[in-house]
Amino acid sequence: MTIVENMDVGIMANLKEKVIGIPRAMSFYHNYPFYFGFFNDLGIKIVLSDVTTKQTMSEGASLVVTETCLPIKVYVGHVLNLLSKGVENILVPSLQSVDTKIYNCSKIRGLPDLIRNVVKKPFNMIEATLDKSEKNQGLYEFLAECVAPFGITDKNLIKKASKAGWRCYNNFHVMTKSGMPYSKALSYALQGKVVILSEVKEYPISIALVGHGYNIYDERVCMKIVDKLEKMDVKVCSALQLSSEQLSEGIAALGHDKYWANEDEMTGTAGHYLKDNKIDGLITITAFGCGPDSLMVERITRKAKQYGKPLLNLTIDEQTGEAGFVTRLEAFVDMLFRKKRASIVNKINISDNDTEYKPNTDIIETIS
Ligand code: SF4
Q1: What one-character-per-residue DSSP string does 32-69 give?
Q2: Ligand 1 centroid to 340 CA: how many Å?
Q3: 45 in a domain, yes or no?
Q4: 262 CA distance to ligand 1 centroid (A)?
Q5: Where would a tag sit more exposed on the chain, N or C end, judged by fewer CB atoms within 10 A?
Q6: Residue to probe by mutation, ligand 1, list 26, 73, 107, 295, most atoms within 8 Å of CB
Q7: 94-99 and 102-103 as β-strands: parallel, antiparallel, unpaired?
Q8: Is residue 107 lining ligand 1, measured as CB closer than 6 Å?
């Protein structure tokens, strides 16, 4: 945790009122249901940054070098947004490794250092660390660091709050696994509800969307890709519908061991859906300049060729134009529809050739 010297009035007020700012970016898309249950149980008020806008992106991008990937630029923009709202007590987690020798990319690992160096405003950065590989520092140590600035040190209280966090997190995942879209499931989970859809709409085409939550579910970053595909009559499947066992099997199906912490969302998801006959094609979404994703997409592309599964690789950055993005989506979906129609016609033709012609005597009998 970094506490600035000569703490300013805003920071002190935030700590006294138990207010924590969470940037709506990066790990937010994975961990927020847990944070919501956890911090609420301890009486800590969460203030989220506003949804991503063009301004969030451009303000974040203006503070870092051009080569930095888009999600990090967006994250910086969200920290600035919280500061502009008067929130000066901000959680910037240091997520090093989630298991033995399973690491995050260097940009995620160095996120607190990056923020410290580029955001030149006084604020209290809660830099809780999760590092199972080097320091054997797991979730409970991480959570204790999150709440220590608020004077909460009672282990039993923290444990009880973590149960509330898991409850909310598990409720969210029960709903996404049943096929509910991300934002709907999040909204119900935050209201403490579990709603299972009784009717699931049938779609003629199914596509697996492969990418990190911060790339797929940030509606500005990904230009509402899920909504766009659904409007094209496409069912969208993603990592959110899969169990951790299915994701691990997916990574193994691509012939290697897990190395990156967020690999489930890429190779795990792709490996699973490549083998699924109900999936007509895959779309990968990666940020320009992302090293780990470029390696993973290479593996996915090779495997997709082996399985004969259509694959569209889309790369995004802050310059990506919506028109070109939509054109590529439409062309891919159109190709999948044509392929599906052709396979149905072929099946009909094959079955016609395979059977002898038999006149429909029923009709003759009826006429006579
Ligand atoms: S995994 Fe890739 S996109 Fe995500 S933060 Fe690291 S470099 Fe950026």
Answers
A1: HHHHHHHHHHTTPEEEEPPPP-HHHHHHHHHHS-TTS-
A2: 35
A3: yes
A4: 9
A5: C
A6: 107
A7: antiparallel
A8: yes
The parent domain of residue 315 ranges over 201-353
* Total domain count, the chain: 2
134 shares its domain with 23: yes
pLDDT computed for residue 19 by the predictor = 95
What's the 14 CA to ligand 1 centre distance in angstroms?
Answer: 30
Q: Alpha helix (H) ranges present in 42-190?
A: 54-63, 70-84, 106-109, 111-118, 139-147, 155-177, 182-190
Residue nearest atom 6 of ligand 1, based on CA coordinates:
105
Query: Residue 221 sits in a domain of what CATH number?
Result: 3.40.50.11900
Q: Is the CB of 309 under 6 A from ligand 1?
A: no
Q: Are residues 348 and 292 in the same domain?
A: yes
Residues 234 and 161 in one domain: no
Confidence (pTM): 0.89
Q: What percent of the chain has pLDDT over 90?
A: 76
Q: Is 247:268 a contact under the CB 8 Å cutoff?
A: yes
For the CA of 286, the closest atom of ligand 1 is 3
- Nearest atom of ligand 1 to the alpha carbon of 293: 2
Tokens linked to 200: 């699931």
The pLDDT tens digits of the residues spanning 218-265 come to 999 999 999 999 999 999 999 999 999 999 999 999 988 889 989 999
Q: Are residues 166 and 206 in the same domain?
A: no
Does the structure show a pLDDT above 50 at 90?
yes
